[in-house]
Design a protein that fits this description.
This protein is α/β, with parallel strands linked by helices. It has helices spanning about 5-20, 30-45, 75-85, 100-110, 120-135, 160-165, 180, 210-235, and strands spanning about 50-55, 65-70, 90-95, 110-115, 135-140, 170-175, 190-200, 200-205.
């Protein structure tokens, strides 16, 4: 792995610089996302990660989606960015916004930050709708953190409440095998075969005042879809 560090450093610096500069004139972050997709493909290729995608045909080109994924590894994001032909923005912890350069760049690129302790739901929904009006889709890791063992944990309902208010279709994503590449707590990577399964979109009912119980039920429904795929493909042979 160490002999790959110079190559990784070069394309990370070059693409990162291009992405940051582009944010000065491309406020929608389209070019920056192109840089992120290129970086994702390069990091996967460099570290020997082979990705198979299933179910892209279930999506309608030009539609804005909320992608909801399980979270096994920091490699989940490169896999998703490289594999989905959509302008995707992440919903991230507010603490990331305070990182020098990175936080500024992510904000200018249209990514959404949430203070989990004191969420401003009205403000988040307003920003969310602004992103949607620009044709941007969102990716949510609904477990809230990476899984320590690869199993799919309970999905938090907060983001689903916003999704119901926005009336956007939700696409469950099952990322399988990234834990073999780089599990939580390990810095070394290993080559591996990874699978990304795109499930049928779920159309949440648009409602001005959905209840917490409505959001919890939707979160459980999506979690069952993702967990079943992970259990079947990742653990059935164990």
């Amino acid at each position: 792995m160490f002999f790959l560090i110079p190559a990784i450093t070069v394309y990370t610096v070059v693409l990162g610089a291009l992405s940051i500069v582009s944010s000065l004139f491309d406020r929608r972050g389209y070019f920056a996302h192109g840089c992120a997709r290129a970086w994702s493909r390069l990091i996967l290729k460099t570290t020997g990660v082979r990705v198979t995608v299933e179910g892209l045909g279930r999506l309608t080109p030009g539609t804005t989606y909320i992608f909801v994924s399980n979270h096994q590894s920091i490699y989940d994001t490169p896999v998703i960015f490289a594999s989905l032909p959509y302008q995707i923005r992440i919903i991230a912890k507010e603490s990331l916004a305070r990182f020098p350069v990175l936080g500024w760049h992510l904000k200018r690129g249209g990514h959404l930050f949430v203070d989990r302790r004191h969420p401003d739901r009205a403000g988040i929904l307003k920003r969310w709708r602004a992103l949607v009006s620009e044709g941007l889709s969102l990716i949510i890791y609904a477990e809230g953190t990476r899984s320590p063992d690869g199993r799919v944990a309970r999905f938090k309902a907060g983001s689903f409440l916003l999704a119901m208010q926005a009336g956007l279709p939700i696409v469950p994503l099952a990322v399988i095998g990234t834990r073999q590449v780089m599990p939580k707590g390990r810095l070394r990577t290993e080559p591996a075969d990874v699978r990304l399964i795109v499930h049928e979109p779920i159309h949440a009912s648009a409602a001005a005042e959905p209840t917490a119980q409505d959001a919890k039920a939707l979160a459980e429904r999506v979690q069952r879809v993702v967990a079943a795929a992970v259990d079947e493909r990742q653990y059935s042979a164990l």
